[in-house]
Structures are given as structure tokens and as C-alpha cells.
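Progress report, Aim 2. The chain analyzed during this reporting quarter is listed below.
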Amino acid sequence: MTQKHLDWIAIIRLGLVQSAIGSIVVITNSTLNRVMVVELALAASLPAALVAWHYAIQLSRPIWGHGSDVGRRRTPWIVGGMGLLVIGALFATNATIWMATNPVGGTLLGILAFAMIGAGVGASGTSLLALLATEVAPSRRPAAAAITWIMMIVGIVITAGVIGQWLDPFSPQRLALVVSCVAGTAFLVTLLAVNGVESGIAKPPPSSEPGEQQAFVSVLKQTLNDPLARHFTIFVFVSMLAYSAQDLILEPFAGLVFGFTVGESTQLAGVQHGGVLLGMILVGLAGSFVSGDKTAWLVRGTIFGCAASAAALVFLMAAAYRPATWPLEATVFGLGFANGVFAVSAIGLMMSFAGKGASGKEGVRMGVWGASQAIAFGVGGFAGAAGLDVMRHLMEAPSGAFAAVFAAEACFFIGAAVLALRYRKPQIRGSLSRPHTPVQSTPNAIPLGVQHGTANNL
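Predicted C-alpha cells for the chain:
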């Protein structure tokens, strides 16, 4: 039977799911963060801890991916994860409002809410990537990665702009209404986007053979025992650590060193995202016209993106000592462009590696790499801010403190580029393609439905 791949319309529809995920995450990670710190005058460490908690929960990504592998259908997991994400966002909003009158009760509800948000992002995002990895033709993977991530950023930008207008003048009631509207719209968009996408793809039915439906732990061990899968997990962590460490310090850098106002530093963030979008678009377009091995081309794009990001960070180090004459906007745009090239190339590479492995295990592989990315984002954002605090304590001028943190980030990007050099060898990239020795089930194996409890209901 000839495999039928997803067409461009289906890829764009799945990109809408990424837009929906981004629209909710920007509320929970940014808007509620601002409300807790500014309007409620709570410690900034509280929302930071809740965001870190939601990243920690995403360590469950391999479990969600395995669940979608076993059923051989991704749509129920995408929809179920989005439903969990929506409910978590509503709970988080109510928790934020409750903190004004009952900090303890609001915080406890917030812990539950952000756990649901982390699980929802993990279930929907992992299953979505697994679907793209298995059903997108190799020649379309660079463009598919670009489309889905561009649409996620567009969803974030549009949502931030719209709710920014709707929330003024601020009140708890207005906050609850706005979040409810965004959450409901995101869930409806997801339902419409995934409806019928998988129905046109011929797939074998879920197997009832015990050798086919292996326990999650056995599949996870198989994945981590594969040299390429294990090495790529390390690469994802190192590269995303460098990618995320700048998130919380770039705007303070513009304010403390260059004297930018709040509005000017916000506009600078827009300049950076403009560079990210340009890098993503160019990778997607160029990848569609490149002939030959698409995976090899994605490897080159990943290496270039890491190296260029490191170079841009070196320029920011120099900028810290010449704020009067340095073209900061151009440098930040270049950093964004390099980040965009890296991000789309790395995501495309992830899809390629997941799709080359043993059939029926794509979700677990995506889950493992997604969990590594989540850890890196949680650690990177905190480490970048904490490292800045430490260096500012040790140095009198903020310029040296920022330069030291940028230097550390550049080193991580260089390390990631060195790790990615390994993937230039076809024999290394082919290790996932070799068949794995099946792990025989044992009489003591825990049945899948019992092992994961209610998770299989999503």
C-alpha cells in the first residue's frame, strides 16, 4: 500500500493547533505573571516557580507520546491535551484572582493549574509533532517545521496584542472574561483544525499482540539505548539551554546598559521576533527547493544557526562596553535571525530522526526530546537570570555582568554546534533506522491501561 502523506492544507491546519497552544501559553506564562507581580504585588519568585513547575510536569511527554503510539492515532491525544490545557488556564486565572484575598488557597490552586498546563502542553504538543514526523513527506519536513513554528509565534503575537487592548482598564472580572474567550477560541480552533486530518491516512489497526504493545518503560529503554536518540537528547538540552537563557535578560540589558525605556525595550523584543520569523521563513522556503538529502541540509542549517547565534552573542558582549555607538537593534535582529534558523532546522531534524526510527515509536522519541527541551527551558531561563544576579553582585558595572552571561550562552551554542557536527555522517543518522530487538513482555508486566491510569482516557 502506497503511503499517503499530509498535503499542505493539512500541515497548515496542524499549524493552527500550534497557534492555539501558543495563545494560551502566552497568557499563563506572561500575562498572569505580570498580574501577580504588578497588580497583586506578590513576590516575583511565585510566578517564576509556577512556570518552572509547568516545565517540570512536561517530563511526562514520553508517556503521552507512548499513549499515542499504542493507539496509532494522534488526534484524541491532541484534543485531550488541549482540553487539559484550556481547563488549566482557566484554573490558573481563578487562582491568580484568588491570591488577592487568599494567597495560600490561590497558590495551591495555581500549583494544580500549572500542572494541568504542563501536562496539556506535553500531551497535545508531543502528539502533534509525532503526527507531523510520521505523516509529512521527507521533502516537506523543513517547510512543515517552519510553518508550524511560525504559526505558533503568530498566535502568540496576535494574542498578546489583542488581550493587551481588552484588559484595559484592568479588573479581575475582565481578566477572567478575556482568558475564557481566548481559551474557548483556542479549543474550538483545535477541534476544527484536526477534524478529519488522520481519517484520510491508511493505518494499520492497533495491535493486540503482546510483543507489539510493549510497556512504556521497555520502549523508553529502547529509545535511550539507541546511540543517535541518546546523543540527540543531549544536543536538544544543550542547544535549548543556550536558546532560553537569554529570554529574561535581553530587555533588562537594553534598559540598564543602553538606557532604553520600557516601551523601547518592548519594541526591541519585537525586533528580535522579526528576525526569528525571517530566519524561520527562509529555512522553510529554501528547504523546499533543496534537492537531495533533506536531513543533511537540516543538519547544516542547525550547525549554522548555532554558530551564528554564538557570534551574535559575542557581538552583544562587545555592545555592553560600547552602548553609545553600538547598533543594538541590528545586533538583536541578527540574534533573532540566527535563533530562527537554528530553531526550525533543529525541529525539522527532530521530525526527521523521529520518522526514521522503528515504526510505532515516534511519539516516545518526540516525548523524550520534548522533555529534554522542557528541562532546558526551565533551567535556562532561571540560570540566565540567576547568573546575571551573581555577576552583578561581583561586578560594579552591569556591562561586565551581562557580557559574562552572554559569553556563557555563546559557549553553550558552540557546544551545541560541535555536537551537531556528528550528524553530518550518514551512518550516524542511520542508527535510528536499524531495527531494534523486540523486548519480550513478561508475565509481571503491568498492563498499559493500569500503568498510566486515567492518562489513557485522553
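The two ends are 30 Å apart (CA to CA). The chain has a mean pLDDT of 83. These observations will guide the mutagenesis work planned for the next reporting period.
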